[in-house]
Structures are given as C-alpha cells and as structure tokens.
C-alpha cells in the first residue's frame, strides 16, 4: 500500500543538554567512581553520547552505608506527610523537565521520541505523584495500622524503559520510608543520573537515593551486599535466577520482574481493525523491547487469513528511522548485542520452517535497526514461539476453540501479560480467568497506570509494582 511521504519533523537533540561526562551519585553528591568509565552511545547513530563514571565495590559499600545512615537518621523517622512533600517536588520537576528527559531518553536508548514524550516520561511522573499521595496514608493500605519500611533497598534495572523502571522502584521505596541504591543498565545510565540531579534539586536528604552506573558486575556486587534489606530487580530471567540463588537463605526480601512471551488472542468476533492496531502496538511499541510485549499472536483460524492480510498491510506502513523524528514509529535497537540476538532468533525461525515476512520500510544507512518482521506458520515448539526475542518480531499461531487458545497461550514458561480481543464480555472473562499471566488486557494492550499492579508469575518473576499491591513489597 502506498503511504504519504512525510517531511522530517526532528525534535532538537540540544534539548537534552547532554553533558560530556556523568558521575555516580552517592550520599547526596556526584562523586568520582572507582570503576572504569564507560561510554554510552546513541544507538541511532552509534556515536558516543557521553562518558559515564562507574562504581567500584568500594563505591557500592559507600552507597549502601549512606543509604543506611539516611534510613536511620533522616528518612526512616520522617513522618509520611513530610516524605510526601519531597516526592511531590520530584514529580513536579520531572514534569517540568519532561521535554529534556524525553529527548535524553531517546538519545540514550533509541526509542521514538513520540514514545518517550507520550509514554515513558508522563508515566514516570504519574508514578511519582501517585506514590507521593500514599506516603501519609500507608496505614490505610490494608497492610496493618502502622506498616513499617523494610530498610535499605538495592535496585537493578534494564535498558528498555530506563527512567520509568528507575521510578517504578524509587517512588514506592521512598514513599514507604525506605532508602535506595539503584544500578541503571550499562547502555542507558543517563536519565537515572538526571533523576538524581532532580532529587538533589528537590532537597532530598543525602543518602536517601544513590545511583551507581556500571555493568552487570556492579549489579552483582550490589545485590550480594549484606547491608541491604531488600533487592528489587527488573531484567532477564537468567539474571533473576542468579540473584535468587545469591539471596537464598539470607532472609533479605526480593522481588523479580523478569521476561515474558505474551499471547495476544484474537477471536473471530473481535472488532478487526481495532484488534489489528492492538496487535501492532503490542509487538512494535518500543521496538518490541518490552517484557510484556504481545509477541505471540493467537488468531482464530476462521479469520486468520483476513486478519493476516490486514495486519501485514498495517505493519508495512510503520516508519522505521530516526528516533528523534516525531513521525517515527519504530526506532533503533538499543545495542549491538541485542541486535545480534534478534538476528539469531529470527534465523532460528527460518531454520525451523516458519515463514518470514519483512517490512519493506527502508532502514537508515547507519545505526542499529531491525525491520518489523512477522513469522507465520509458527508451531509451538519453535524457538520463535518459546523464547523472548525482545525485538520487533511477531510470531503468528492459530487456534480453533477458546480452550485451544487458552492452552496455547499458557504453553510458555513465562506468565507476565496477555491480551484478549472479542466483542463478547463473557468470553473475555472466561478467557481471562484461565490465562496464567499477571496482567490481562481486554480489547486494549500496554496500558500502564500507577494505580494498577504489574508483575508476573512463574519465570516472569514475583512481586507487584504499582497500586496498593505494589506497596506491599516495600513494607513489613
Ligand atoms: P539483564 O541482562 O538481566 O540486565 C538487567 C540489569 O541487570 C542490568 O542493569 C544489568 O547490567 C544487570 N545485571 C547483569 N548481570 C547481573 C548480575 N549478575 N547481577 C546483578 N545485576 C546484573 O536484562 P537485559 O537484557 O538488560 O533486559 C532485558 C530483559 O529484562 C528482558 O528479559 C525483559 O523481559 C526484562 N524486563 C522485564 C521487565 C518487567 O517488568 N518484568 C521490564 C523490563 C525488562 P548491564 O546493563 O550492565 O548488563
Ligand atoms: Mg546508550
């Protein structure tokens, strides 16, 4: 199908105020880290954006000690209503600096500016406001009349939603009276460090929030630190299992938000055009680097042919390119390593006999990109149906009966999210009750709201983030 040509509509990179160097944030100040500096790149061009100082094991010690002091002397004893004031201030500054944060996120991560601007940053701000409101009402959360903070939290987060994942941990931790040491992902440390700057600007007492950039080793040193009371991790299932082994027997609390391989189920009575949009959003949002991405389409056999035709026609119109361009639908893949992984898993799809369709959208000449890809004729045993690709690759399977849809949807070691598309409320409820997934969306997908708990089961982890249930992880 022909599409209109769009004139370029680039957002200005200058809005991000990228500094040449960034440093770890410990005990209320930016400090020289003892680790080897890393260079963070813009995946859209592979150019170096900034040099970032990283933490050594001594810095981990210092940060945990600072968080302990703050927990005992300032933040822990502070009344909830006072803590709320700081959180509201941070939330307001995030909203005020939203344009800068959105551009910085897009530069460091590669996601389209439309998404960082309309999803990541506003949702981060909403989570801060939401949790600020809880700080003085914890006694009404249904967790006892006087719930207490857990203590010092160590948090490790991935690169796909760098600011949002940082806030998902920081906001509830601080609202509940805990202090925190956060390790952002190696390839996307910048927005977490600007968030630290914002916390300082808001007057947050020293040691309450500490940010330690670095690679996986810094994360491993942090989660193993005996000075922590709780670890909150978002990332891959393999690293999550390793952390669980490290913490076994220590009595320290742990929540894990891990991978997924969500089914998006389309019944033959669904509003077809709406379902096509939802399926496209489900897998191509954020280049498919989404733990709850709808990466397995299960479409009822009677409409499979018609649905596939409409779906491919729609996917063909997605614009892949400069993430800073406001017309871009699919941006850059965050790292060379992730691109290689997507290429390998897609090749496994070919080798196992699935049929690959690739969008003809031209890709930029430089930078890390992968075209929107759809595999049809996928069998449940194939790797593209079982493994998390974490890229813009959709696997299409079919089913005949609701029972078969549920059985196939649940045929995965994961259990994070799922989607259902049908006109019949009773059918949606029947299906949702049988799906083993932490979040089930009906006639929509990728809805994130701070009042609503998010999390998985089985290999997708345990514990919830958001809503009243999310507070439980940070209170004892
Ligand atoms: P990852 O390799 O597990 O990395 C996640 C974080 O852990 C990064 O900060 C990483 O540092 C750090 N890390 C690596 N090895 C570690 C170790 N041994 N001990 C402690 N920390 C360690 O995951 P990823 O590939 O970056 O992220 C993609 C995965 O995250 C996907 O599987 C996705 O589904 C999952 N995810 C889940 C959710 C959710 O809410 N359930 C949300 C987003 C992503 P480096 O960056 O330096 O490697
Ligand atoms: Mg980067």
TrEMBL record:
Pfam assignment, any one: Aldedh
Keyword Magnesium: no
Active site: 257
Keyword Transmembrane recorded: no
Keyword tags: Oxidoreductase
Official protein name in the record: Betaine-aldehyde dehydrogenase
Gene3D superfamilies, per database record: Aldehyde Dehydrogenase, Chain A, domain 1, Aldehyde Dehydrogenase, Chain A, domain 2
Superkingdom, taxonomy of origin: Bacteria
Similarity field: Belongs to the aldehyde dehydrogenase family.
InterPro entries the record matches: Ald_DH/histidinol_DH, Ald_DH_C, Ald_DH_CS_GLU, Ald_DH_N, Aldehyde_DH_dom
PROSITE patterns to which the protein is assigned, alphabetical: ALDEHYDE_DEHYDR_GLU
One MF annotation (Gene Ontology) recorded for this entry: oxidoreductase activity, acting on the aldehyde or oxo group of donors, NAD or NADP as acceptor
Aldehyde dehydrogenase domain sequence ranges: 31-475
């Amino acid at each position: 199908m022909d599409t209109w040509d769009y004139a370029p509509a680039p957002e200005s990179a200058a809005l991000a105020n990228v500094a040449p160097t960034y440093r770890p944030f410990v005990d209320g100040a930016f400090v020289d880290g003892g680790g080897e500096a890393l260079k963070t790149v813009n995946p859209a061009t592979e150019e170096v954006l900034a040099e970032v100082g990283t933490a050594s094991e001594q810095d981990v010690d210092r940060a945990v000690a600072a968080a302990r002091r703050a927990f005992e002397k300032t933040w822990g004893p502070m009344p909830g209503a006072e803590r709320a004031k700081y959180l509201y201030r941070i939330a307001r500054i995030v909203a005020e600096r939203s344009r800068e944060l959105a551009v910085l996120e897009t530069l460091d991560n590669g996601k389209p500016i439309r998404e960082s601007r309309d999803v990541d940053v506003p949702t981060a701000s909403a989570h801060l406001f939401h949790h600020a409101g809880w700080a003085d009402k914890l006694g009404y959360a249904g967790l006892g009349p006087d719930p207490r903070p857990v203590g010092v939290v160590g948090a490790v987060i991935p690169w796909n939603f760098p600011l949002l994942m940082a806030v998902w941990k920081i906001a509830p931790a601080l609202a509940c009276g805990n202090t925190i040491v956060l390790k952002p992902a190696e390839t996307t440390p910048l927005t977490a460090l600007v968030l630290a700057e914002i916390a300082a600007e808001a007057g947050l007492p020293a040691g309450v929030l500490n940010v330690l950039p670095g690679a996986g080793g810094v994360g491993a040193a942090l989660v193993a630190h005996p000075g922590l009371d709780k670890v909150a991790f978002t990332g891959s299932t393999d690293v999550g299992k390793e952390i669980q082994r490290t913490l076994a027997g220590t009595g320290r609390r742990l929540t894990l938000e891990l991978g997924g391989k969500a089914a998006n189920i389309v019944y033959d009575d669904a509003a077809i055009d709406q379902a096509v949009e939802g399926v496209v959003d489900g897998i191509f949002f954020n280049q498919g680097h989404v733990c709850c991405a709808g990466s397995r389409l299960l479409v009822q056999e009677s409409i499979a042919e018609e649905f596939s035709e409409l779906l491919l026609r729609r996917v063909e119109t997605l614009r892949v390119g400069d993430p800073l361009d406001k017309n871009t639908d699919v941006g850059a893949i965050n790292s060379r390593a992730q691109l290689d992984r997507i290429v390998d898993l897609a090749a496994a799809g070919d080798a196992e006999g699935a049929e690959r369709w690739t969008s003809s959208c031209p890709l930029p000449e430089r930078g890390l990109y992968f075209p929107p890809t759809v595999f049809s004729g996928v069998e449940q045993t194939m790797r593209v149906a079982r493994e998390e690709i974490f890229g813009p690759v959709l696997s299409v399977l079919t089913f005949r009966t609701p029972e078969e849809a549920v059985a196939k949807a649940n045929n995965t070691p994961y259990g994070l999210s799922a989607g259902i598309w049908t006109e019949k409320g009773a059918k949606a409820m029947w299906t949702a009750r049988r799906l083993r997934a932490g979040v089930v969306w009906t006639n929509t997908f990728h809805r994130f709201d701070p009042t609503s708990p998010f999390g998985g089961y089985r290999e997708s982890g345990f514990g919830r983030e958001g809503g009243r249930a999310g507070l439980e992880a940070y209170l004892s």
